[in-house]
């Protein structure tokens, strides 16, 4: 019961309330209370919280005497509180009471430069806890970690480093040592807004399989094949007219001719009508 947790209760306030219990506000009197995921707080509890912030006092559940407290509040949420206010799911007056000093903590995907340093730190912490030598990250592995989506943010990265400390075969962590679900979650996030049969979805799935197999230099492998496919399709669509195919691809004719040579195609392999 969240009200009892925050504000405490009197003896006999409800079944099982055999003694008086101080809530978090009383326990934090003279200090700071951290309220996590406040955006999910029920409206009736929001009302009680607003009264504490406005008046500096509250009533225990089942109580009749006000309890005065002096507590500083730090609140956190993953929700968009302005949107919750517009939807009627969060009190506007409470929002403005809380929104005094606002700190935005961006997700890992918005501060990728922090990922390698955090990973090395968590590997060292896990090694100390387990009494083993800290694992090292291969440069390719470090780059792969930086590219991942990390929907679980820092906690997910920390847990991954703990897992690698136990499960990675060698002292140096290779790409193939990474748990497969990391790539699956990244592909799922990056393709969630794509059509299931779109070329981007299929390409992302191919890249996922290749990375999990330890492939490197994916771009140098994929780019010629992509150009080959586009060229073939454009030439087929134009019945071999290279100038028209170049226009469809957004290239000049000289660029198309150069690409054909790079791919090892000769005019004898084409049905050209230029």
UniProtKB/TrEMBL annotation:
Pfam families associated with the record: AAA_lid_14, HTH_8, Sigma54_activat
InterPro entries assigned to the protein according to its UniProt record, in alphabetical order: AAA_lid_NorR, Homeodomain-like_sf, HTH_Fis, P-loop_NTPase, Sigma_54_int, Sigma_54_int_dom_ATP-bd_2, Sigma_54_int_dom_CS
Occurrences of domain Sigma-54 factor interaction (ranges): 1-166
One GO BP annotation of this record: regulation of DNA-templated transcription
Gene Ontology molecular function: ATP binding; sequence-specific DNA binding
Coiled coil: none
Keyword annotations from UniProtKB, A to Z: Activator, ATP-binding, Cytoplasm, DNA-binding, Nucleotide-binding, Phosphoprotein, Repressor, Transcription, Transcription regulation, Two-component regulatory system
GO cellular component: cytoplasm
Compartments it resides in: Cytoplasm
Family matches, as SUPFAM superfamilies: Homeodomain-like (SSF46689), P-loop containing nucleoside triphosphate hydrolases (SSF52540)
PROSITE patterns: SIGMA54_INTERACT_2, SIGMA54_INTERACT_3, SIGMA54_INTERACT_4
The protein, known as: Nitrogen regulation protein NR(I)
Organism: Escherichia coli
Phylogenetic classification of the source organism: Bacteria, Pseudomonadati, Pseudomonadota, Gammaproteobacteria, Enterobacterales
Gene from which the chain derives: glnG_1
């Amino acid at each position: 019961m969240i009200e009892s947790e925050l504000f405490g209760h009197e003896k006999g306030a409800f079944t099982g309330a055999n003694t008086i219990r101080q809530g978090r506000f009383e326990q934090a009197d003279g200090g700071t209370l951290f309220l996590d995921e406040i955006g999910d707080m029920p409206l009736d509890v929001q009302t009680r919280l607003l009264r504490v912030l406005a008046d500096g006092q509250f009533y225990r559940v089942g109580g009749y005497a006000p309890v005065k407290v002096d507590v500083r509040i730090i609140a956190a949420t993953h929700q968009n509180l302005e949107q919750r206010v517009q939807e009627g799911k969060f009190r506007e007056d409470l929002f403005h009471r809380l929104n005094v000093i606002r700190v935005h903590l961006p997700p890992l995907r918005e501060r990728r430069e922090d990922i390698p340093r955090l990973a090395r730190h968590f590997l060292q912490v896990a090694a100390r806890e387990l009494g083993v030598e800290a694992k090292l990250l291969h440069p390719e592995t470090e780059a792969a970690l930086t590219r991942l989506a990390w929907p679980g943010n820092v906690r997910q990265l920390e847990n991954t480093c703990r897992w690698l400390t136990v499960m990675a075969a060698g002292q140096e962590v290779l790409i193939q040592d990474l748990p497969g679900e990391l790539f699956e979650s990244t592909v799922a996030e990056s393709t969630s807004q794509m059509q299931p049969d779109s070329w981007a979805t299929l390409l992302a799935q191919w890249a996922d399989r290749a990375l999990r197999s330890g492939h490197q230099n994916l771009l140098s492998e994929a780019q010629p094949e992509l150009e080959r496919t586009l060229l073939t399709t454009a030439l087929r669509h134009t019945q071999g007219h290279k100038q028209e195919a170049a226009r469809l691809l957004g290239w000049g004719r000289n660029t198309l001719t150069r690409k054909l040579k790079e791919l090892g195609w000769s005019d004898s392999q084409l049905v050209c009508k230029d």
